[in-house]
Amino acid sequence: MARERNTLTLRQRWTLDDIPWGRIDAHAMSGQEILFYLVLGASFIETATDTYTRNLLDHYASDPDISLWLSARWQHEELQHGAALRRYAETAWPHIDWAGTYARFFQEFAAKCAEDSLEPSCGLEAVSRCIVEMGTASYYLTLSRLSPDPVLARLAGLIREDEVRHYKYFLRYFHAYQDKEKTGRLRIFRAILRRLRMIDMSDSSIALKYAYGMLHPGASYDKQIYRELQKKIRHTMGRRFPIEMSAKMALKPLDLSPSVQRTVLSILTPISRYVLGTSREART
Predict the structure, then answer these.
(1) Is the distance from CB of 103 to CB of 38 less than 8 angstroms?
(2) Stretch 70-90: mean pLDDT
(3) Are 91 and 155 in contact (CB under 8 A)?
(4) Which of 6, 93, 172, 209 falls 20 to 30 Å from 228 in CA-CA distance?
(5) How far apart are CA 280 and CA 284, in angstroms?
């Protein structure tokens, strides 16, 4: 991975100046409650990247290659995602108080983030990060497909490309560690399951609570409202969610034979469609 040092100085692939902010179709986004939650929630979590980057840097302190990539490339790109999504939100919905709401979100998020534990080995944590990047790549691809505004579709597409690239880096680091750690498939599978269970829990639930509060100031927010919002979001996203792509990315660290992977996918894909309530049109 030493060659990674030479690539970190390359020109970044896109900047905020590449986004045509003046062409945002605020009218098209008016009344798009689910998209509001998706954009605002993502903007909060991406902006808070610094918080969990410190945890990762401590975990990988003995590895200068991944530490350099995390601090010089990954962290920078994740923070750019947050800045871009914030700018989009404040342009499309100019009435919102993004800064004030984020401050309240961050207070709760930071406390929860400090409690989160990482995987015991560097290789297994790289697997866990692959699942995170799989989830975000799928999220932004879905957001791009759902957006009635071409500017948001373009922005989500650019972020999705970054997340796919991050996934590939974490997968490459996992393979490098696997050469030394020789972790069995069962432990790798358990790490994948642990991270999959976390995807719908802490971060997204906290972000959704504060995004909901922006649209409904003063309204109560409890578990029942959260479950109802989750159901609506899953229904909306499920129609365009890339189930097969996500499943393939999740299974990649297991290094299954082609025949076994086809069998597993044939089982997982219809189950996932049923859980998400997807139609047959979303099969990418």
Answers:
(1) no
(2) 96
(3) no
(4) 93
(5) 10
